[in-house]
Amino acid sequence: MKIQEYKIYLRYLDDHKCPDCGEKLERRPRRLWQKAVSFALPLRHYKCSGCYQSFFAFSPLWNQMNPVEKIIRLLATAVILLAGAYIILRIIFVILYIIMA
Question: Is the pTM of this model over 0.85?
Fold first, then answer.
C-alpha cells in the first residue's frame, strides 16, 4: 500500500458522490492504521464505483464535535502514538544492549 494511492479531502461528503466524476461512492473497510488515525481525525474511506479512485473524507461527525472534544481526541492520539514509539524504541535498545553485552 502506498500513500500516493489515496486522496484526502478536508471536507465531508453529504451527497456521497465522487468529487472527481460524480458517481456513487462506496465505503471501504479500514485497515488497522487507518482506524488508529481516524480516532483523532474521523476520516472515512471511500472508493468511487465509476473511476475507482480511493480517497478519505471527513466524517459528518467531525463538524458536529465541539472544539474541546476535537482537541482532546488529537491529544489522546498523540499520547498513544508517542507511547507506541517509546515501546518500540525501548525494545530495540534492549535487543542491542543484549547483543553488545
Answer: no
Q: What is the largest CA-CA distance in the chain?
A: 62
Q: What is the mean pLDDT of residues 27-32?
A: 79
| Rg, the chain, Cα only | 18
pLDDT at 89: 96
Classify 31 as helix, strand or coil: coil
Cα–Cα dist 78/97, whole Å: 28
Q: How far apart are CA 93 and CA 32, in angstroms?
A: 26
Q: Which of 91, 90, 71 is nearest to 79 (CA)?
A: 71
Cα gap 27→81, rounded to integer Å = 26
